[in-house]
Amino acid sequence: MNADTESQQRRLLTLAASASVATALVLIAVKTVAWMMTGSVSLLASLVDSVMDSLASLMTSPRSITRWYPPTTSTGSATAKRKPWPASARRC
Questions:
Q1: What is the DSSP code (8-state) at residue 82?
Q2: Which of the ends of the chain has fewer CB neighbours closer than 10 A, N or C?
Q3: Which residues does 62 contact at the CB level (< 8 Å), separation at least 6?
Q4: Is the confidence at residue 19, as pLDDT, over 90?
Q5: Which pLDDT value is given to residue 82?
Q6: Which pLDDT tens digit goes with each residue over 30-42?
Q7: Cβ atoms 46, 86 nearer than 8 A
């Protein structure tokens, strides 16, 4: 894969992830207002689900992934040393 194609793919991936997070934030706002107006338990459950989805999107966004796994060169070797996982994410 050449550098231009990889750059464009990374840009599109970042754009898609940003759109996903933005959509989730709009849904959270709308569901919060609807829940406060109605007091519906099902809306509250849907709100919690949306919050969890947005957290998952933020954790798996390209920026957070590249923070731990830097891009590789065309030969497959990493361009920089990989950072270790934080202690809180490691299993005992």
A1: P
A2: C
A3: 10, 13, 14, 17
A4: no
A5: 58
A6: 999 999 999 999 9
A7: no
Contact 14, 58 (CB under 8 A): no
Q: What are phi and psi of 17, to 5 degrees?
A: -65, -40
Report residue 24 CA to chain centroid gap. Answer: 11
For 44, other C-beta atoms within 10 Å of its C-beta total 16
Contacts of 46 (CB under 8 A, 6+ apart): 31
Q: Report the distance separating Cα 75 and Cα 29, nearest Å.
A: 45
**3-class SS of residue 80:** coil
Contact assessment for residue 64 and residue 83, using Cβ atoms and an 8 Å cutoff: no
| Count of CB atoms situated within 10 Å of the CB of 40 | 13
More confident residue, 92 or 22: 22
Q: Which two tokens stand for residue 2?
A: 């050449």
The answer to whether the CB of 54 falls within 8 A of the CB of 90 is: no
